[in-house]
Amino acid sequence: MANSPQSKKRARQADKARTRNASQRSMVRTYIKKVVAAIATGEHAAAQTALLAATPVIDRFADKGIMHKNKAARIKSRLNAKVKALAA
Predict the structure, then answer these.
(1) Domain coordinates of the chain in residue numbers?
(2) pTM to 2 decimals?
(3) Residue 87: pLDDT band by 50, 70, 90 thresholds?
(4) Which fold, 5-87?
């Protein structure tokens, strides 16, 4: 457990960041699930709209360093490929 004032402060800051990041992570997962659900229905327009809404959220998440930029790119690429497959 933290003993010094500095380590106590770092523990408080880490707890705040963990809570904030968990909330953000949940939000991003929700956006991803919306895209996957739209793909499952088979409607290309709905899936495209959901993807356009999710892309900037995923990018912002990666820019903040909560998710690795390569993971964000991989998720966007896979979702985009599935949406394009619906059009064909």
Answers:
(1) 5-87
(2) 0.84
(3) confident
(4) Methane Monooxygenase Hydroxylase; Chain G, domain 1 (1.20.58)
